[in-house]
Amino acid sequence: MSALIPDSGPGKDLIDTRLLAVLVIDDLESAVPLAESLLAGGIQAMELTLRTPVAIEAACRIREAVPDMMLGIGTVLDTDQVDEVVKAGAAFAVSPGVNPTVIRYASAAGLPFGPGVMTPTEIDASVQEGCRLLKFFPAESSGGLAHLMNISAPYNHLGLRFIPLGGVNLGNLETYLGNDLIGAVGGSWIAPRDLILEGNWKKIESNAREARSIAG
Predict the structure, then answer these.
(1) Could you give the number of structural domains in the chain?
(2) Which of 30, 77, 145, 146 is 20 to 30 Å from 66 by CA-CA measure?
(3) Could you tell me if 150 and 131 are in contact, meaning their C-beta atoms sit under 8 angstroms apart?
């Protein structure tokens, strides 16, 4: 089974690191210095989103040049993208929603996969596909931690863990991480797109250090 399982493999690694930087890369030359800046600041895992034409090649460069970075790919919406992600050698993949076809295809390909959920129905569908570490998205606009606690309550006996993304920041990071439902916290505030475009690696490293100091 290739779903992200909290007690082994990439799922455990994500939970151990506690932080996941969510990234959009527009320029291939930004890929390696970005990953290096995050690592220098204590961020050991990233979700590189498939929102630009250079994303897969950027992932390949990061994997080759920065092997200590746990590289995941996000916004995986179809089976063709699963094939690309596997070829790029990513440690895991995530999606904004629940697509059983994509989850099953990823499982058959041996790719750990975390679907995005914000309702009990989506949690249930993910559980039926064997997923145990789920992306809670969009976290804040759907009701934040209180909403997650409510929708996940019927499934607590299954030991599910969640990675909230969307509206998470330094102001609420500690609150999320203090809850037992949370496996790790992800967000784009650590390395926002504008800072990447500027090549402001010092600021990105500083953001990473600040987040790491809160996460411990």
Answers:
(1) 1
(2) 77
(3) no
Residue 50 lies in a domain: yes
Looking up residue 116, the CATH number of its domain turns out to be 3.20.20.70
Query: How far apart are the C-alpha atoms of 103 and 106, rounded to whole Å?
Result: 5
Q: Which of 84, 122, 135, 205 is catalytic?
A: 135
Residue 63 lies in a domain: yes
205 catalytic per annotation = no
| pLDDT tens-digit series, residues 60-91 | 999 999 999 999 999 999 999 999 999 999 99
Backbone torsions φ then ψ of 213, nearest 5 degrees = -65, -30
**pTM of the full structure:** 0.94
Looking at the DSSP bridge assignments, the partners of residue 133 are 161
Element housing 71 (H / E): strand 70-74
Catalytic residue among 36, 47, 122, 129: 47
CB 69, CB 35: distance < 8 Å: yes
**Count of C-beta atoms within a 10 Å radius of residue 81:** 20
